[in-house]
């Protein structure tokens, strides 16, 4: 039986895939290497990243140990994708500052605009999780919140109220020009956040008390 996943003649079928490895841990002091559990990436309504671990039973099926599976989001920087597709998606949001939410923005952009994000469980990359960031934010600016507001204003649509309920300080942020991001949405005829929740990340669906 032909396995289309590794059929090089059909790689064009995966042109819009963003592929992630399992992120293993490298100790920043000793550089000891340790394996991580296989996980998806997700986020909450504050656009804060989180890991979503798969149940052990999932791996009792042998093929699941190598078969890529969908992930709602990605950790920052650890990904493989076609350069042409990255450009087609508008690359990263160049209006963002320093650090934060660029991974959530690219994840949403991929899912909503015709692509997908998958984890290849047989691929592992070690990452040094530093004790602190070696750079600082701009004076007087919470760059992580600033970037998250840009994502919310561009991609969350009617659900941006859930973001601002989670991050009320975001309502005071002057988030800059997002017109180029809006053009990407229009050019690629991207879907909305309701579609993303229903088809990709149902666990994100607002609870009744979140709607009050």
Automatic annotation (TrEMBL):
Chain segments annotated as coiled-coil in the UniProt record: none
Keyword flag Transferase: yes
Matching InterPro entries: Galactosyl_T_C, Nucleotide-diphossugar_trans
Keyword Membrane (UniProt): no
Pfam family, one: Glyco_transf_7C
Keywords, alphabetical: Disulfide bond, Transferase
GO CC field: Golgi apparatus
Protein name according to UniProt: Galactosyltransferase C-terminal domain-containing protein
Domain Galactosyltransferase C-terminal: residue ranges: 69-132
Record GO terms (molecular function): Notch binding; polypeptide N-acetylgalactosaminyltransferase activity
Gene Ontology biological-process entries: protein O-linked glycosylation; regulation of Notch signaling pathway
């Amino acid at each position: 039986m032909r396995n289309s996943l590794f059929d090089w003649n059909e790689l064009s079928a995966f042109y819009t895939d963003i592929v992630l490895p399992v992120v293993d841990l490298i100790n920043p002091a000793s550089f000891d290497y340790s394996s991580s559990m296989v996980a998806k990436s997700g986020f909450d309504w504050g656009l804060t990243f989180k890991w979503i671990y798969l149940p052990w039973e999932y791996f009792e099926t042998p093929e699941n140990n190598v078969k890529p599976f969908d992930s709602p989001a990605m950790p920052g920087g650890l990904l493989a994708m076609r350069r042409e597709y990255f450009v087609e998606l508008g690359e990263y949001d160049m209006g963002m500052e320093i650090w934060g939410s660029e991974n959530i923005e690219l994840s949403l952009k991929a899912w909503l605009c015709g692509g997908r994000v998958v984890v290849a469980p047989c691929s592992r990359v070690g990452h040094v999780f530093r004790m602190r960031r070696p750079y600082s934010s701009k004076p007087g600016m919470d760059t992580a919140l600033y970037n998250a507001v840009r994502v919310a204003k561009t991609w969350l649509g009617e659900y941006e109220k859930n973001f601002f309920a989670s991050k009320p300080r975001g309502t005071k942020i002057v988030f800059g020009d997002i017109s180029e991001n809006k053009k990407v949405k229009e050019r690629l005829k991207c879907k909305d956040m309701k579609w993303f929740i229903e088809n990709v990340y149902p666990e994100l669906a607002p609870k009744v008390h979140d709607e009050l």
